[in-house]
Design goal:
Length: 449
Amino acid sequence: MERAPVNRLRSKAVSRRRRPWRIVTAFDHYIKAVLPNGLTIVLRENHAAPVASLWIWYRVGSRNEHPGMTGAAHWVEHLLFKGTPRYTESEMDRLISREGGARNGMTWIDWTTYYETLPADKIDLALDIEADRMVNALIEPADVRNERAVILNERRGAENSPTFRLFEEVQAAAFKVHPYGHEVIGYLCDLESMTRDELLSFYRTYYAPNNAVLALAGDFEAEDMLARIARRFGRLKPAMRIPRVSAVEPDQTGERRVIVKGEGATNYVLLAFRSVPATHPDFFPLVALDSVLCGASGLSFTGAVATNRTSRLSQALVDTGLAADVAGGVSPTIDPYLYILFATLQPGSDIDALERALWAELDRVRRRPVSQDELDKAIKQTKAQFVFGAESVTNQAFWLGFSEMCADYGWFYTYLDRLSAVTLQDVQRVANTYLSRDRATVGYYLGQG
């Protein structure tokens, strides 16, 4: 693709001498720029509708926590909705609602993000709110107490879910060193003991322009928007030191197993294989393999998932009456994470027989290549889901920022091409490399109801 020169940006409203930002990339209505304080800005113009969506991403998630502070990233996310001296919680809600907008936030293992989608001529409101709470969140003692109760209830509610309990145990068994081994919500003991000062310190450590990416898509002129962003965020001071995650998980050299017992009459089997980060050459072949085994997925946190009834594992496990449902997934992450296969036992079925059938299908895909027609179908369905998950302005802005968290925008921009380039040999190679028993952590949930 021919890249447009930087000087072809559409708006000429800002004098070159007054531009504090540095353009990193500019092509096809996309711009990536960096402010002197380290804030990364990614913009994509889309004039199809008078709407704009802003996402502010922070490079902090459960990956950045240590024992005693598990759940801190998620807790701080809650607290940033409580407001600042300028914008109280009720004021933020009132202003966004008055303009017909929507807002929310979420925390995951690699990042925390907040977004607002508004009429394009009202997007300055989102810029003002996010610039303010990047550095001025109150984190009042009363709010810490109230949110502690809320998050403890979330934690206890999650513990009532067999699938949460099973995945938490499998996750902990799969990682011995890396902080990917604990859930985003954190451990109960840490949620009960963490202090307001610890949460405030966590916020001041990670919430800074040089640890953030501002992603914005919609109906605006790029250079004018850069100036509006710079006016609000350019004066914010960068963090002096952002701790680096240096943990490297040792190689797994044998199968690990966990058994969880609890309430309910349903049993589950979970296989978790040590996987690769989003930037690894094997990531896209693994996406294709997952589509063959489990059906297409758009990989988005906001997109839809297609039916998997024609996938290999559905035919082998669901159609034969062994399982009520089967699913899988590979996630784009910074460090090597997990490829998951998950099956819900059909009432009256034998859980050992279900696991044997699951391994038999994995052995089959390892021994014999899938057919070209099968791979073509899987890739076509996955591409359709990916495109569907990037249609709205809100999802486009999501992908702009998400890509910067785990790789860069080029990862997203070339996603379809790299998926299309996956070959039968690639699929069989990654099946043999990653679907081995020595890389697996196997979990059973046995309902006692």
